[in-house]
Design brief:
single chain; alpha+beta; Diaminopimelate Epimerase, Chain A, domain 1; 2 domains; 18-stranded mixed beta sheet; two-stranded antiparallel sheet; 17% helix; globular
Length: 350
Amino acid sequence: MSIPVLIMRGGTSKGAYFLREDLPAASAERDELLLSIMGSPDPRQIDGIGGGHPLTSKVAVVGRSADPEADVDYLFLQVQVDRPRVSAEQPCGNILAGVGPFAIERGLVAAAEKITPVRVRMVNTGALATVHVPVRNGRPVYAGDTALSGVPGTAARIEVEFRDTAGSVASGLLPTGRVLDDLDGVPATLIDNGMPVVLVAAAALGVTGYETPARLEADERLRHRVERLRLIAGTLMGLGDVSATTVPKMCLIAPPAKGGALCTRMFIPHRVHSSIGVLAAVTVGTAVAMPGSVAHADTGATIRVEHPTGFSDVVVDLDAGRSAIVSTARLLLEGQVHPRLTAEGAITHG
């Protein structure tokens, strides 16, 4: 048994991209198959194509869209590394950057020189995005001179534009109706402009906000404190008991270290991101532009969000409900993936 797949880097993540019709329609059957393909649950994902880390254990399922406002539907699935669980709770803006090239590679969208706009409906939330893909001779262009923090080398510039992303998972841009909330004595901004995020000052939790991800992950006291605040925030944001979910994300913020608007450390939610997710960056940038938030700063139209491996630039227009980010993507492998089978030929995982 084999299934066609493209392995692509999208932004600062890597994932397996599938055509919708190549996977089972029933979600339970599909998820069992993806666990087997990615090699979960196993910390190394040694018997699958996952990379043993949340940033490299991602799946995009793409098909033609029936929505007149979109060309393709994109379902993002996070395959957990060490648990037999596949989550569709929120989209991934990094993997989204690869959806445009994938749609052209698979013939879902006709290429148009020099830039092909691919209109994408994010199935997880219903929000729309447009991925502007550079094209030459009918094929996506991957080589270019755009550098992306957290990614070696350079690649072709891809612009990802978002609209109407407020309240992607929560009930609105500010789910509590307030710019500032109190989480067990800690001032916080609870916001969702594409990704539910809780922003708190790192100093309020006894750290600087400039530590490495590894150092933050090794701080057991901090991790417990961050998770306690996340559980409180989940309830306030109307998300219920979030102990078994990946949202909201927790963002520790500090004054900028390298000329940006602020410095961030993002818990996703238990590991610390080596950079920052696209939609998380958009949400953080929105908080920066919002007077009264814990992250507010006076900036120009482009907001630079610093993270452990560099920065992400986002453009936010609160009045127009528009946001965009510069990204890149690259096709790494095209082929057939073979799921793990029992001796009787049944799909299995673990």
